[in-house]
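Researcher: Here's a chain I'd like modeled. Treat it as a single chain, no partners, no ligands.
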Amino acid sequence: MANPYQALFNAPGSRAFVLAGMVARMPISMTGIGLITMLSQLQGGYALAGSVAATFALATAFCAPQVSRMVDRFGQGRVLPVSALVGGCALLLLLLCTRLQAPNWTLFVFAALAGCMPNMSAMVRARWTELYRGQPQLQTAYALESVLDEVCFIVGPPLSVGLCVVVFPEAGPLVALLMLAIGVSAFVLQRSTEPSVHPHDADQPGSVIGSGDIRLLMLLMGAMGAIVGVVDVVSVAFAQQQGQPAAASIVLSVYAIGSCLAGLAFGALKLSTPLPRLFLYGGLATALTTLPLLWAGNILGLSLTVFVAGLSFAPTLIVAMGLVERIVPPAKLTEGLTWLITGLSIGVAIGAAGSGWLVDAFGARSGFWLSIAAGAVVLGSAVQGYRRLTC
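Model: Modeled as a single isolated chain. Structure tokens:
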């Protein structure tokens, strides 16, 4: 039986843009944690570090869809270099201000401007869509990208923290900056696979966020992101409570491995089930697999339950991306994909903050009540989405 992932790369230029895109997307996973590590070392506290990193995260959530909207209108080759230049220069100035001990307000200004970095995950998916629009290979391509996103967030944070601690405090964000410059440059130079700029429909002006279907998908992605944020925080708190703080990394890795394996398997399947029905199944599985998290009594039990919870993440994400490709006109595809990723990022922040409060107030496992609430939102969004998309 032919390997469906290997078959994807029969398309000329596909290997090159996937590799360049992988390098270019690493800064998103490295910068926030790198800023926290850098500033906590140099300033001796976490209040300023967390606030600057939050400013960067919120700016990214706001700017990424706007950048993608411009990409849809003017093309990747014209917009991405400008976006990367603005974001990269702002990050460099933030590092210089930190080194020169400039006033704290300058850190917030440049952190906000650094949020202009493009969302490269959406850019790569847009190229896959251009190659395989309307073909079964597109689901496999989206599955591959979901797995690569997972790998990025597995590798990026520890790499950035390690560089800041071992080399010098600014090393993590600085390497992220270099990867942004190299990755985006290599990506935009590949003109043969760049998506065409499709004519915009005068009857559908404005942003795709005005679509009720896109807002519903974004709500679902936000709830899924909240589950991820809860797992991140509660795993650390639970491991510390058990007297095994290092075990948190094992739990988090198991969650990511479950998602990666499920994503790879899902992408290799040739399913005839309609996407709206798969979307409903994904929402149901996500909601149900959050329930066992409350029953974990030790590290092994928590690892098993988060592994099961991770199994539904990547397939549901893949289906959601596939629905965006069906719902959004080609002229607005990149923006539509970016809104979903933005929703996921916002959800992670909400889940982390909310579960952190619950853990401090009621103990480690109490944070999982937020994941159950988020699972209910996922299920409700999936049911409503199924009704809208099948009527």
